[in-house]
Amino acid sequence: MRHAANHLCPPGPQADPRPGDEIRPIRLIRLIRPIPLMGLAVALAFVLQAAETPRAAWALLDTGRYPEAVAAAQSALETRDDEEDWALILGRGLLSLGRYSEAHHALTNALSRLPRSIRLRWLGREILLHNGQTEAARRLVQEIIELVAARPFAYRDPADLVAFGRAALLRGADPKQILERVFAAAKKAEPPLLEAWLAAGELALEKRDFALAARSFQEALQRFPDAPEVHFGLARAYAPSEPPLMLAALEAALARNSNHLGCLLLLAEHQVDGENYAGAEELLDRVLRINPYHPEAWAGRALVARLQNLPHREQAAREMALRFWTNNPRVDHFIGRKLSEKYRFAEGAACQRRALALDPDYLPARAQLALDLLRLGEDAEGWRLLAEVQQRDPYDVAAHNLVTLRDKLEGFATLTNAHFRVRLPPRDAALYGPRALDLLERAHARLSAAYGATLERPTRVEIFADTSDFAVRTFGMPENHGFLGVCFGPVITANSPAARPGQRFNWQSMLWHEFAHVVTLHLTRNRMPRWLSEGISVYEERRADPAWGERMTPAYRDMILGGELTPVARLSAAFLAPPSGRHLQFAYFQSSLVVEFLVTRFGPDKLRAMLRNLADGTPVNEAIAQHTLPMADFEKEFAEFARQQAEALAPTLDWEKPPLALRLAGAAAPAWTAWAKSRTNNYWVLTRRAAELMEARQWPQARTLLEQLTAAFPQDTGPDSAWRQLAAVCRALEDPAGERAAWSALAERDDEATDAYLRLCELAAAAGDWDTVRRNAERHLAVDPLVPAPWRWLARAAEGIGDAATAATAYRALLELDPPNPAEIHFGLARALHRLGDPAARRHVLQALEEAPRYREALRLLREIHAAENPSASPGTAALAPP
């Protein structure tokens, strides 16, 4: 998975974390220590006094005081057995505590007293499901529909409307109509009814319309700022794409109800995502102390056991999850979904098939199975299942998006060889498709050999010119949070250079990065932590080209020396909720640095052996300890290695930063002068002084300073690089050799410096150095092959070198770009094809003449072509050659 460097900046807290404090849930765990509950015998009098009304008892449920709420409801029902709210409170409380058989008994009693209650029937559905009575649960839903149909005037209460709307959705009602007519009507209640807002938000979540869900819960928050369920709904809406906002919402909910089971489970999921399995177990234990039979908690335990390669523990936990509701599809669906999020798609797909075997009508499992199959390259079944989901539920946003995208994919071009099947838009295919295929083939040869991998089938690569299409194919939703490419194993999805206008990236580096994932995921059977997968890919980028991949920068130097390294044992968590885009990119860099340390210190064979262990299910920390050092020693040695790497960045420079007050716009010049006076070798002082000299057009003095900077810090790249400034100074001094040397130094180190590449083409062409022109045109094409300039330079260089085949390729690309001078391009292509002996040369020279009938060089070339095709013809007939 490759992110755009310096592009992501997730919302949320912006303060830098303390060393080792990158996992925000750790702070939440402190918040959610259980509230001590008084013994019921001692507290009963207090409870009865505090919960004399249903409203007070609902408050007990909302704050996680489930035993007290149950006791209050039981007491009230002894004297007020016609109270619907008390029966609902009792059922909900017993469900929360896992007392399922008691909840069933209470439901039976309540329905005998309140036979027309549809609210009880809706709660009863969940109670019956948790008792394994799925058919009886379906009957209750049908009874709701029948009761309302028979006496609609009796169910106009907003709470009844919500219950009816939810039941109607299960029976196939149009979600839009339920949302706009039923839930909207319930929302108009005074005082406002929380359930109406929750139902609307949950409907959006069910349809995977997370943006709509977030808006719905945000609206609810205006009316119910203290309701834990609203904050929990917001957390679920943010979970797929905004981890910092999800954590903030969970924190708000748990501050009000530290026993909120849904929040604890979602937080445990987050810990699993960060591979903090001990933290996840702690949270799951917390849930099970409240409800010893909670199916999702036991499913979470089964998941953690699977991820730790503990099959017997996994089986036992799954059996506990299904103890009461034996055909509960949510258990295997959850396990499979989380395995797929760990890129273990084959295992995830198997879990979804198991869920569907328990309940063939469970659409979430069918939809997830379809996604898994598409990511495994099993398109036929994946698309068929998606079409089924979309047909049965037209409002499933992800299914709708993907089915719509399939029509676009039908129009893509396909390029193939023995190892790859590349699909991309026709224009992209014509411009750089063969280059992409060649780049991937080189990556295959190098990386397969380096890691001893044999890929059994071709890798699928899909490249999208629309970043929303890329996001839909990758995530099911059109929002792309900074990803350039994603690898699922046998399938890679990627952005085309056309997908991000104005935001350049090196697409060749990105594809190399993603194919490295293909190799390592294959070797480990997709059982590797994110940090190691990303670390190897970035490391292999740097090995393939020193200008590619993440490298040490002044910012990374500060973070390492400032104690911001994440412990290797928790490094995957650094990708989850980084406080800024810089921290996310640092996670990639640190991961690659760990791999570099491992290979440098212990050798590549140890890395390969670790990957084999991961394939067998060995946890990564055990694999590291087995092949290198005990984890504590490994952490210590790596930290020292990272420190040395940081200190090796321009070691002769002083890196002390000016105080913030001096860095602000408008800072007093005397204060800066006083600070800078004694820091003559300070990086920030030198760069500012160089800028001042350039602004004053004092070119010789600026050159001296910039040469000092580049000699001390040759790795300096980016838009403010001293190399770029030195090139500008040399140009002002009319020193083409110095300018060319500066641009060349930058081009060797910066894989996105298109201005450097183009200027080098100009300078090298003036000197007749066509090899350099070609090299820099190729560099530019690795960033942006969709503009004419690099193709023009490549054509000129190829002609200068005598490479007619490359010249023909470049001229064909220029024709795809709708040139303003098509006659010249057709002529150039005809000339190259003629040198290759290709009969298509005649067609292109005639097209040149069609555009410019008096084009003398084209007429001369036409005579040459005619003479070559008709060696016995007299010279005078050349002009009469038929078109």
Describe this entry's structure for a reader:
There is one protein chain. By secondary structure, the chain is mostly helical. The chain is built from 45 helices and six strands. It has a six-stranded mixed sheet with strand order 1-5-6-4-3-2. α19 runs antiparallel to α20 (345-358) and α21 (363-375) packs antiparallel against α22.
Determine the fraction of residues in helical runs and give it as a percent range.
55-70%
SSE class: mainly alpha
Low-confidence stretches: 6-50, 877-883
Number of helices: 45
Tell me the total number of β-strands.
6
Major beta sheet, strand line-up: 1-5-6-4-3-2
Distance between the termini: 52 Å
What is the average of the pLDDT values?
91
Radius of gyration: 33 Å
Largest sheet: 6 strands, mixed
Q: Strand-residue fraction?
A: under 5%
- Molecular shape: globular
Q: What's the gist of this structure?
A:
With 883 residues, the protein is mostly helical.
Notable characteristics:
3% strand, mainly alpha, six-stranded mixed sheet, disordered C terminus, 883 residues, globular
SSE layout:
Blueprint: E1 2-3, H1 25-31, H2 40-50, H3 54-62, H4 66-77, H5 84-96, H6 100-113, H7 118-130, H8 134-150, H9 158-170, H10 175-187, H11 194-206, H12 210-223, H13 228-238, H14 243-256, H15 261-273, H16 277-290, H17 295-307, H18 311-321, H19 329-341, H20 345-358, H21 363-375, H22 379-392, H23 397-410, E2 413-416, E3 420-424, H24 426-451, E4 459-464, H25 467-475, E5 483-487, E6 491-495, H26 507-524, H27 530-544, H28 554-561, H29 581-602, H30 604-615, H31 620-627, H32 631-647, H33 660-663, H34 669-677, H35 683-695, H36 699-712, H37 722-732, H38 736-749, H39 754-766, H40 770-781, H41 788-801, H42 804-816, H43 822-836, H44 840-851, H45 856-869
Parallel strand pairs: 3-4, 4-6
Antiparallel strand pairs: 1-5, 2-3, 5-6
